[in-house]
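Supplementary Methods. Inverse-folding protocol.

Structures were first reduced to a discrete structure-token string of length 49. This string, shown here, constituted the complete conditioning input.
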């Protein structure tokens, strides 16, 4: 999965994209329960009634 910042939405777009797709950073994030909780919350479907 590639995650990218939309062009023109961040002052340091290239640096952020590089950090988001760094394999070592991703591996470290997967070991952090707080980050995993936040990631899973972002991936949950949202239901509006």
């Amino acid at each position: 999965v590639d995650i990218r910042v939309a062009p023109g939405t961040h002052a340091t777009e290239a640096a952020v994209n590089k950090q988001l797709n760094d394999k070592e950073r991703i591996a470290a994030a997967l070991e952090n329960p707080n980050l995993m909780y936040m990631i899973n919350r972002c991936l949950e479907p949202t239901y509006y009634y």
